[in-house]
Amino acid sequence: MTAGTYLGQPPDRIRATLRLLQHFRAFLASTCTEMRDPYDHQWREAAQRLTKGQAQRKLTWLVHIAINRKAGWADDGSTVSDKERHLRQLAYRLNTPRLIVREDELGEWRAWIMARLPERITTREQE
Fold first, then answer.
1. Can you tell me the distance from the alpha carbon of 47 to that of 115, in angstroms, rounded to the nearest whole number?
2. Separation of alpha carbons 123 and 113, rounded Å
3. Are 63 and 21 within 8 A, CB to CB?
4. d(CA 55, CA 49)
5. Distance CA 83, CA 92 (A)
6. What confidence tens digit (pLDDT) does each residue in 74-83 have?
7. Which residue among 58, 65, 76, 106 is least packed, with the fewest CB closer than 10 Å?
8. For the chain, how far is it from start to end, CA to CA, in angstroms?
9. In the chain, what percentage of residues exceed pLDDT 90?
10. What is the chain's Cα-based Rg?
11. Phi and psi (nearest 5°) for 75?
């Protein structure tokens, strides 16, 4: 592991995140209809239950957190510059199917994104 990867997280925390991803995926692949929310720290009987739809949303959120950590971005967003925040917003929009991303929205990232994902950008001529 290189310096700065995963925001300097110790290997134990990275392995715990991987186990949590596997746990969610196993539930979604199973025939079970509910699971205990692993983020709810109440006693087992009182813990919140998740449906498959809720678990899918939490898994998506967890994957985004893992990707952000790998990219070196903080989870909370409080230490993120305006430039990084704009890139995050663009990344979300670019990765959402059927969402139109216009060239005018790219700002300072225009050349970089147009070189890598030109098929995802709607130009003025295409409108």
1. 48
2. 13
3. yes
4. 9
5. 14
6. 666 566 678 8
7. 76
8. 45
9. 26
10. 18
11. -70, -40
Q: Given phi > 0 = left and psi -120 to 50 = alpha, else beta, which region is 45?
A: alpha
Supply the DSSP string of 34-99, one letter for each residue. EEE-TT--S-GGGS-EEEHHHHHHHHHHHHHHHHHHHHT--SSSTT--HHHHHHHHHHHHHTSTT-
Amino acid identity at 85: R
82-104 per-position pLDDT tens digit: 888 888 888 888 888 888 899 99
* Total residue count of the chain as it appears in this document: 127
Q: How far apart are CA 54 and CA 34, in angstroms?
A: 9
- The first and second tokens of residue 33, run together, are 């209809």
Q: How do residues 35-54 score in pLDDT, each as one tens digit?
A: 988 877 766 666 788 999 99
| Token pair for 13 | 């925390």
Could you tell me the two tokens for 54?
């809720």
Buried b (16+ CB within 10 A) or exposed e, 70-79: eeebeeeeee
Spans of all domains in the chain: 5-71, 82-126
CB 49 within 8 A of CB 36: yes
